[in-house]
Amino acid sequence: MRQFILYSQPECHLCDEAEVFLRQAGLEEKYTKIDIETDLELLKQYGIYVPVLKREDDQELFWPFDVEGIRTFLGLKG
Q1: How many domains are contained in the chain?
Q2: Most buried residue, 16, 58, 77, 78, by CB count within 10 Å?
Q3: What 3 state SS string does 37-77 have?
Q4: Please, what sign has the CA dihedral across residues 2, 8, 14, 16?
């Protein structure tokens, strides 16, 4: 399983919900969480869209998504 990125912000209830879905999908150790507020360019790019998942091939999954959506995006079965 490849690693992927979760773009998020502090105090973001949707980002917290996305992390719950990632745990439910068994992916808690497969992603890197990046706080977009630490980088002005990321904040400009994702500010109104977080949470966003990004694969190694640079494809992005924007909110809203759920466990099934995450699995489909990452090409996982079941």
Answers
A1: 1
A2: 16
A3: HHCHHHHHHHCCCCCEEECCCCCEEECCCCHHHHHHHHCCC
A4: positive
Give the helix/strand (H/E) hosting 31: strand 31-35
Q: What amino acid is encoded at 58 in this protein?
A: D
Q: What's the sign of the alpha-carbon dihedral 60, 8, 28, 22?
A: negative
pLDDT tens digits, one per residue of 4-53: 999 999 999 999 999 999 999 999 899 999 999 999 999 999 999 999 99
Expressed as residue numbers, the domain containing 19 is 4-74
Q: Does the global pTM surpass 0.85?
A: yes
Look up the CATH number of the domain holding residue 57: 3.40.30.10
